[in-house]
Design goal:
Largest sheet: 8 strands, mixed
CATH superfamily of the largest domain: Peptidase S8/S53 domain
Strand content: 25-35%
Number of domains: 5
Distance between the termini: 35 Å
Strand order of the largest sheet: 20-19-21-18-23-25-26-27
Helix content: 10-25%
Radius of gyration: 28 Å
Shape: globular
CATH class of the largest domain: Alpha Beta
Protein name: Peptidase S8/S53 domain-containing protein
CATH architecture of the largest domain: 3-Layer(aba) Sandwich
GO molecular function, one term: serine-type endopeptidase activity
Number of strands: 51
Number of helices: 12
Pfam family, one: Peptidase_S8
Structural class: alpha/beta
Domain Peptidase S8/S53: 380-662
Active site: 385, 428, 614
Length: 900
């Protein structure tokens, strides 16, 4: 939730993590020195927590990494449990940060050992420019069967790779540096967590024919000589003439030593010929082409090395510009996952699955699908916020008109977010807009709650400013409602719904009250975030009359600790909690959506996880848009009546409305049905079905009990629960609060005494009275007796920053102990500070980059409070979460430079 200007705004938690620019290098503070005298100033300390699934590469480029251990070979493979979210780095010799631990010798391979089940997906995403830095993913499945070991590879030339496991057993996961250096994130979720990946690790043999490449020459006779030279240099054999325009099968030498030398010659021969992006790649490879004194792949099996060399040779040929295309000769056909109406095939939907299932979105969509031909009026949702990345591929087609009101009077017809790298707004409005209406069913990116909606983004925050004004917000509300405003301009079509994920800690100003009253009279539904201070009072404009005020719950349907609430709170929606990882994905329990990011100073579309009431509110705005799609004539007063009757929500807490959660958790399925009933006619609703919420339970290594909801989603249904049975004697399930049809709350309990050390997976089979059976996945980690939690993101650097200058005044490096980081900085003399923290896995001196972990006091994703220091503080606790990468897990943050 972002802040509009108020007297207290600077001291309240802003919506996003904002930090001052740290441009001055600072000597490491708090890590030693003369202890004979007490330093002047105050002492600041706290505890940094992190998700239980956190892990770190054993040999990152940070020389300060505690317990550093090489994982470059199968013999030294680093053991992992799953689900897991790991931060790491790899590099060729002489690539990356020169002061890094791996710069001189290189770190070409990171090898991990993990026991996996069929259906688990391994995802790799790296952060550097893939035009010059390229990583690949390999999986080697250990098997007792005869023949070749099953080997899978994902070796594209973008920043994302993935592999799906087909056969259960022990696997070696290899992250390989093909060129350059990069941070990377590796994620392994629970079996069948919804992740889609077309690349499969086969049950038997390799996914490619070893040492064989299929390539089609460029039809240019002037290149024939160069092609012959390249083939000779690479010792590549072909049964066809090098000048042939038909696809050719090229074969590499069988001897690994000869093959390594040939690949080096191929690079140096082809590099001068290459053009475009290939020239960049080959030039970088040629600079490192001389084989090292020791073979960096000596610790890998010959079968895997053949696959890696085949992939590398194919890439070099493709980069040379001598071939239209060149790729390994695949032995198996890549397969696609089945595509249904819902869930959508969007790649990152598994990250969103928990919060969309929680609000009953699948049932709502299934109700609307058979009616879509008759529903032709698309709703418009105004997102009054920090603007939007207008060219984002998941948003561009969804945007109608745009506008901005900034600096108490400046109007523009563009809402494109002008943020630069490190802006305190962190593409907040883009994230909100994606939850409301990101393009869906297109196999890429994320899904939106109401993908049929059209967005009307209105920017009310000036460039790189985390504050706005009530004047600009009020004008934006009037504009969105199609009412007279200071711009003298009206949109071609007014909004059906207004989303306000912003606010300040004060009573409702008259400017807000007047604008909202007039907007409602024009038929506009107004939705606002309650605030993120954990107070028993709501922020404005959420506390204004006529606003549907939204609080937040976490992935376990419990009130989020940060969520403001009071007896007048309307309802709740998923807002997430980055301290937890309970959904089986291995990611923090955050809300995943669209953002912008930067490669250098170039803005690029991206995706992120955030948490807060700002993230809960667009869920409700999206549901209101679904209601307007189903029934364009539904009024704000009718929605108020339905809400008060409990017909749009699932009750939480005490029966009826309560201060913590309002009328309960928004239910999209119920809301759509109610809108259709009010539309006149009596359309036959899709029959309701019993579903599980959540659809996966992750107990981690600490939790022993979880609640499972078996409820009806969709239309009315007499379907009940006939039985719930566990696949494992270590997992028991008993009804806690159920109705006559055995629908309701069940308690699931795990006894780890009956489980082996490591990761275990089980399932609950739910059979209904309609003779239908579905399954709820369960993930469990059993730690050795007496061991502490293993969560670790490596060395973390805590910076105390002067908020006025953005300069660090102190810093300390800390290592994990018992799954948390305990930090302390002494001798701080500043009167006002901010606290930031992050990892520096690539050792470039910059924190809070994509691919690393980042946090700040008081709450990651909810902003940083300026701390007025009147004495020492021991309560400065906050969370650390991954930023960017496979989770895309974090808002775009301001990079910080640490001292060395």
């Amino acid at each position: 939730m972002m802040r509009s200007a108020s007297g207290r705004a600077a001291r309240r938690a802003a919506r996003l993590l904002t930090t001052g620019v740290a441009t001055t290098l600072l000597a490491l503070a708090g890590c030693g020195g003369d202890s004979s005298s007490e330093p002047e100033g105050v002492t600041l300390s706290g505890v940094i927590s992190l998700p239980e699934t956190a892990a770190v590469d054993g040999d990152t480029n940070d020389p300060n990494q505690a317990g550093r251990r090489s994982n470059d070979t199968f013999a030294t493979a680093q053991a992992l449990l799953s689900p897991v979210y790991l931060l790491g780095s790899v590099n060729l010799r002489g690539a990356g940060a020169p002061a890094g631990a791996n710069y001189n010798g290189g770190d070409l391979f990171d090898v991990y050992q993990v026991d996996l089940q069929a259906g688990q997906v391994i995802e790799l995403e790296f952060m550097a420019d893939p035009k010059v830095n390229d990583l690949d993913l390999y999986v080697y499945a250990e098997t007792a069967s005869e023949g070749d070991a099953p080997i899978g590879e994902s070796s594209g030339e973008n920043a994302y790779e993935c592999l799906r496991i087909e056969r259960p057993g022990r696997h070696r996961v290899v992250v390989a540096a093909f060129s350059g250096a990069s941070l990377y994130n590796l994620r392994i979720g629970a079996p069948n967590d919804g992740s889609t990946c077309a690349n499969v690790v086969p049950a038997t043999a390799s996914s490619i024919v070893p040492r064989e490449i299929v390539a089609r020459p460029v039809a240019d006779a002037s290149l024939d000589g160069a092609r012959v030279s390249a083939l000779r240099a690479g010792a590549l054999e072909t049964a066809q003439a090098a000048a042939s325009a038909a696809p050719q099968v090229l074969r590499l030498p069988a001897d690994r030593t000869e093959r390594a030398a040939a690949l080096s010659r191929l690079v140096t021969t082809a590099a001068p010929l290459a053009r475009g992006d290939g020239a960049k790649r080959l030039a970088a490879a040629a600079a490192k082409a001389t084989p090292p004194a020791t073979d960096p792949a000596a610790g890998l099996p010959d079968a895997l090395r053949e696959v890696i060399d085949t992939v590398n040779a194919a890439k070099h040929l493709r980069h040379s510009g001598l071939y239209e295309w060149a790729e390994p000769n695949y032995t198996v056909r890549l397969r696609s996952e089945p595509v249904g109406t819902y869930p959508p095939p969007d790649r990152l939907y598994p990250n969103q699955r928990w919060h969309y299932e929680m609000i009953g979105l699948p049932a709502a969509m299934n109700t609307l699908v058979p009616l879509k031909a008759t529903l032709t009026t698309y709703p418009v949702v105004a997102v009054i916020d920090s603007g939007i990345v207008a060219d984002h591929p998941d948003l561009a087609s969804q945007i109608g008109e745009q506008a901005s009101f900034t600096n108490s009077g400046t109007f523009s017809t563009s809402a494109d977010d002008p943020s630069g790298p490190g802006s305190p707004t962190g593409f907040h409005g883009t994230h909100v807009a994606g939850t409301v209406a990101a393009a869906t069913f297109d196999t890429t990116g994320v899904a939106g709650v109401a993908p049929m909606a059209r967005l009307l983004p209105i920017r009310v925050f000036a460039k790189d400013s985390a504050t706005s004004s009530s004047a600009d917000v009020a004008q934006a509300i009037l504009y969105a409602a199609g009412l007279p405003n200071s711009s003298g301009v009206l949109p071609a079509r007014r909004a059906d719904v207004i989303n306000l994920s912003l606010g300040s800690s004060r009573a409702c100003p008259a400017a807000y009250s007047d604008a909202i009253t007039r907007a409602r009279a024009a038929g506009v539904i107004v939705v606002g975030a309650s605030g993120n201070d954990g107070l028993s009072v709501r922020d404005s404009p959420s506390n204004c009359p006529g606003v549907i005020s939204v609080g937040a719950v976490d992935a376990r349907r419990q009130k989020a600790t940060y969520s403001n609430s009071d007896p007048a709170l309307s309802l709740t929606a998923p807002g997430g909690d980055p301290r937890q990882s309970t959904t089986g994905t291995g990611l923090p329990d955050e809300i995943y959506s669209t953002i912008g990011d930067f490669v250098g100073t170039t803005r690029v579309p991206s995706y992120a996880g955030m948490s807060g009431t700002s993230m809960a509110t667009p869920h409700v705005a999206g549901v209101m848009a679904l209601m307007r799609f189903a029934n364009p004539a539904i009024t704000p007063d009718q929605i108020d009546t339905l809400l008060a009757a409990g017909r749009l929500t699932d009750d939480l807490g005490t029966v009826g409305r309560d201060a913590a959660t309002g009328f309960g958790l928004v239910n999209a399925g119920k809301a759509v049905n109610e809108a259709l009933l009010l539309a006149g006619g009596n359309p036959a609703p899709v029959p309701g079905t019993v579903v599980a919420q959540p659809s996966h339970l992750d107990f981690g290594a600490l939790r022993t009990t979880e609640e499972l909801q078996l409820v009806v989603q969709g239309g009315a249904s007499a379907e009940g629960v006939a039985s719930v049975t566990s696949s494992s004697p270590a997992v028991t399930v008993v009804p806690t609060t159920v109705d006559a049809e055995q629908r309701g709350t069940y308690t699931v309990t795990v006894s780890r005494d009956a489980l082996p050390v490591g990761s275990s997976f089980a399932s609950l089979a739910v059979t209904t009275t309609a003779a239908r059976t579905f399954y709820v996945g369960i993930s469990i980690v059993t730690a050795p007796p007496g061991t502490a939690p293993a969560a670790d993101y490596g060395r973390v650097y805590v910076l105390v920053v002067d908020p006025d200058t953005g300069t660090p005044v102190a810093q300390v490096g800390v290592d994990v102990a018992g799954g948390v980081y305990t930090w302390q900085v002494t001798g701080v003399q500043a009167a006002r500070v901010r606290i930031s923290a992050g990892t520096d896995i690539d050792n470039d001196g910059v924190l809070c980059q994509r691919g690393e972990a980042c946090g700040g006091y008081p709450q990651y994703g909810a902003g940083q409070t300026i701390i007025e220091l009147t004495g020492s503080r021991t309560d400065l606790n906050f969370e650390l979460s991954p930023y960017g990468g496979v989770s895309t897990g974090g808002a775009q943050l301001r990079a910080l430079r640490r001292g060395r």
